[in-house]
Amino acid sequence: MIGAGPAGLTAARDLALRGYKVVVFEELPTPGGMLGWAIPAYRLPRNTLASEIKDNVESLGVEIKCNTRVGKDISFDQVNKEFDYIFLATGAHKSQPMGVEGENFKGVYGGVEFLRDFNGDEEAWTSGKKTLGSKVAVIGGGNSAIDAARVALRLGANVTILYRREKKDMPAAEEEIIAAEEEGIKIDLLVAPLKIEAKDGKVIGITCERMKLGDFDKSGRKRPVAIPASQFTLSVDSVIASIGQVPDMTFVPKDSGVSVNKWSTFDLASGSKSQTTNPKFFTGGDALTGPDTVIGAIAAGHQAASDMDAYIRKMNGEPAYVEPAEEKIDIPFIIDEESEEAPQAKMPELHGPDRKRNFKEVELGYKKLVAVLEASRCLRCDAEVS
Ligand SMILES: Cc1cc2nc3c(=O)[nH]c(=O)nc-3n(C[C@H](O)[C@H](O)[C@H](O)COP(=O)(O)OP(=O)(O)OC[C@H]3O[C@@H](n4cnc5c(N)ncnc54)[C@H](O)[C@@H]3O)c2cc1C
Description:
FAD/NAD(P)-binding domain; 11 helices; 2 domains
């Protein structure tokens, strides 16, 4: 495996369960991919992530070699030589540039690069050795823009998110947008960046223009169109550009037989859901689809493990894998006419202002009684009420 994110770890677990010896190469110091290095700890506590990886993956004998970037610490060719089959699960870790003047000034960060640096060097950021300054603009409307903004706020900055469409078009999860606003982050809509302003090479502002929505584009959304003479400059100390990510494919040699397309994602062999153009290599997760979701990456890991096993068996002339028979449990079909429909219990959260300047987990967990009631709520989705 190359990459210890949700796709790589899921495939590693499935293959280990089927009796394969699995080694995972991971360039970062700890496994988890975006779960540990981009999604902030106040949303996904690190000890939970680490113990789940230990208990569900490493305990099966999977060896995870961290601090090992394929293409730098070990060559792609060496991995190719040492292993019979390889799963490429390297994610999409390169922020897309905004394509505006001044993008290379000190104080301009890519969203994922900023989050990764923060997660790897939290002490330097929280002690002030590294700083964003007091005013930060975040460009974009996706999960990484919201996470970068909420981390910047917790580091003490006043944060404005600039997004070129309307709020309903923001790709970030709705609850994340609400949470950001509760915490005091301003979202300025229908705004696009034009130029980063700097003094002595250091960011001092961002010039933007206001947009209005024109005709529908290919994505089915209305295309933002600039309003003439609507330019304005926001005074900021840092700019975080979070408008999307692409995979970094520099580790794949041109002569590997593994085809990479113009979107910097892997091509698949015709008719396959995970095998690349070189039959020895399989892929899945963000490296195949571009930025997606954790559950999408987990599903891709299951798919790849199953495809790899099927291919290996075929090559070895072995019979196809048969799932172990599941134990059937009879669950009595009871609909309690007396019980009332109840909505899902609301998760208690830290109050918005109490989340500033700390990285405490936002969701506080249910009290015992609520947890018991929630667990006993009828979720008989199979029961059709006529
Ligand atoms: C800020 C942010 C917030 C998000 N929030 C959510 C959310 O709330 N819900 C949700 O469902 N999804 C969210 N996502 C998306 C989700 O995290 C990703 O879709 C998912 O992690 C992709 O899994 P993956 O295994 O394909 O790749 P990744 O998780 O990116 O893992 C790839 C791993 O490969 C390693 N790697 C890369 N190249 C090499 C190499 N050459 N050698 C060795 N190792 C290498 C990387 O270091 C990384 O650990 C978020 C993403 C970001 C960036």
